[in-house]
Amino acid sequence: MKLGAHCVLFGPEIATDTDAVIGRLAEVGAEGCELGERFFGVDDREKLTTVLDKYHVDLAGMHCNNLNLLDLLYDPEKSRAALEKVARFVAPLPNKNIIATGACGYGEMVKELNPRTLKEGAVAEELHDPEKVAIIAKNLNDIARDIREQYGVQVNYHNHSWEFCDNGLIWFALADQAPDVMFALDTGWAASSGYDPVELMDKYPGRFHYVHLRDYRKVEDPSAQKFEQVHTGFVALGTGDMNYPRLMRKLNETLGKDDWAIVEYEIGNFDKNSYLRALSYLHGVRDML
Questions:
Q1: Radius of gyration of the chain from its Cα atoms, rounded to whole angstroms
Q2: What are the phi and psi torsion angles at 277 (to 5°)?
Q3: What are the phi and psi torsion angles at 117 (to 5°)?
């Protein structure tokens, strides 16, 4: 298992001063990084590889920001085009990983997510319908299979909370009905939604080669939390209620030597030193195990 850091914390600076961002991550001991199409784009691979080579940092995965679950239902070719665009970027690179978040609606639907509870989930009614969700899973599976066959690139689905609404309807549909899709499991969003990351990995062996690491505070009723509360409430690794010795033990069993565990800090009082403390903590836990 390799340890890396997500670049989303640095926002537009990822594109405007790529050297500085990657240099900071190298300083704190990240073996790799995850970039997002949203900030860096997929048009200048040479610029990125030059910086990565300079600091001896790998691109662990590229995040696709234009996958929408409703497109997978109504216009799957739009989803295919979005994923293929990223696949062409990463195909020549050593780590051929697309990290794909399924957006939970269009326009105002997404804006209305923040005040909704995790139990309410996505605004779009289709995402609460088992028959429609099954179609979404099948269509994503077909696209992921074709991309792997054509480009040698793996689609890894990255969850938030809406996948765990309705007793995990969307997440388990992908797990059970989309075998060609791997999971870039976001441990923080899963745990905050009431689903134990270790138990998910136990239930679906072989589906995890890439995870996002966060820490959180337990609450009495996870489903009653508002999305915005969870999103802004993640805490520094090792300071919350995620049992990291237990989680790291499972990751050591689950992830291969070339698989990735990526620390993700996104919103809140986090900076470069947050990654330094997190990676030092993770190395210490791993050495202890």
A1: 18
A2: -65, -40
A3: -80, 160
> What one-letter code names the amino acid at 190?
A
State the pTM of this model: 0.96
Distance CA 34, CA 48 (A): 12
The answer to whether the Cα torsion of 165, 97, 66, 70 is positive or negative is negative
Q: How far is CA 160 from CA 1, 121, 191, 237, 280, in A?
A: 23, 10, 10, 18, 26
Q: Which of 127, 244, 238, 144 is nearest to 197 (CA)?
A: 244
Question: What pLDDT, in 10s, does the model give residues 219-274?
Answer: 999 999 999 999 999 999 999 999 999 999 999 999 999 999 999 998 877 888 99
pLDDT in tens, 33-65: 999 999 999 999 999 999 999 999 999 999 998
Instruction: Work out the pLDDT band at 285, boundaries 50, 70, 90.
Output: very high
CA angle, 87 as apex, 123 and 2 as ends, to 5°? 90
* Rounded mean pLDDT, 8-36: 94
Burial zone of 41 (CB within 10 Å; 0-12 exposed, 13-18 middle, 19+ buried): middle
For residue 119, give the amino acid letter: K
Residue in the structure block whose two tokens are 């690139």:
153
**By percentage, how much of the chain surpasses pLDDT 70?**
100
Q: What are φ and ψ of residue 227, in 5° steps?
A: -55, -45
Per-residue model confidence as pLDDT tens digits over 177-211: 999 999 999 999 999 999 999 999 999 999 999 99
